[in-house]
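**User:**
Everyone, produce one record:

**Assistant:**
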Amino acid sequence: MPIGMVDHLARRLLAQGRAGRPLLIVALGLLGSACGRQGGAPAAMPGTTPGLAAADAPKPLSVMAEVGKKLFFEPALSASGKQSCASCHDPGHAFAPANALAVQFGGPGLDLQGLRAVPKLTYQIDTPDFSIGPDDVAGLEQHLPGVSPHAGPQAGILAAKPPADPARLSRVLPGVAKASSAVTAATALVPQGGLFWDGREDTLQGQALGPLLNPLEMDNKSADEIVAKLRQLGVVEQLKTLAGPNVATDPKLLLSEALFAIGRYEGEERAFAPYDSKYDQYLQGKLTLSEAEIRGLKLYEDPKKGNCAACHPDRKTADGRMPMFTDYQFEALGVPRNAEIRANADPRYYDLGICGPERTDDHARQPSNCGLFKTPSLRNVATRQAFFHNGVYHHLEDVLRFYVERDIHPEKFYPRKAGGRVDVFNDLPARYRANIDSIDAPFDRKPGEQPALDEMEMKDVIAFLGTLTDGYKPDAVAKAALNAR
């Protein structure tokens, strides 16, 4: 098959999101063979093997991915001339911010503050398209039938099989169980997939375009402004060679090919999905975990303790693929309002996740979606310096303490109102607080009860989370231990 035809097929399939990825893998394999004869072959698509061996030598990037790499690190694409994609997605920090700011700064003078914490870009290629559908995560039977384990008790429902305990369902859904026969025979429908915290984009191209046009980030006023900058960067000739002469005369095609190139860079560059953490090597039988890490793993999986695996699965899939440590679903956790974010100075402003302000489609108008944010992958979580969508916490210890004490000691996390009452869930309007998870461990505790994890257990869980950091080299660790003696 001619290289131009294969590359065109790859572009179309990548634009289709997850639905086109099985064929995309084949297309990129064919393209790799063709590109190899021209001096460069793309690496295998991340996540398509049961895990890449740490010793595998990285493959050279395709010519298209090399163009994407150039654009990824190009500050001239921003209004300030000083901000590139890599400014907020640093390769040395799992393609996340290198600083501890809750949210990053951008705009023409780099003095405008963003609204959300910047997510990492590692392991994004396998993210499914956004949808609302049945919760098919393994272990759903551990939860109340008819209620999503990833949203509050008022989550959307669909008639299906009867719950095991209708009386309990009636208590959890007061007033609803009586009013609707559908509730008495229900299974959960949950939002899942998509890129960004609110799942509003399905493709890597769309994800790349968002910051380029965001006035709080790279601040291009229009697509035409981006195109003008692309023409000045000397990539048009390369893209003409790869995608045909019309790239030079068709602004929409030029922009599309440039965004596709960035997506190809993220899809081919192994650093975006190396699968070489200590835990990956443990699953491959190459090494053992420490006693603290093993204890932490057990607590992580225990549905009555950490219960982390319910939303962040840690086992290989049935077809042998390595775990992504996210179920790609959405949840409302009720994290405290972050005073560091300037927009929060306005008491009328709320970040409602799927319900906006960034997302504006029909899903944003569904009350059951308000306050829900996508569950991030925990891969490389120990390298992050700002946690949750609003960056309210900066240490894993604080994150775990919030999880296990939110409902036991709310005064530790939320401010008090003028009358002295704790303003619980203060970053979500009262009408949406029924969406907050209050069913699953560790959120199933009441004031006066013991937390799901004690201090030592939290340390063990954090020790386990440290095994999810990419780039683990057993020889280097052993050598460092010897030098420390």
Remarks:
- The mean pLDDT is 83.
- Residues 251-268 form the longest helix (18 residues).
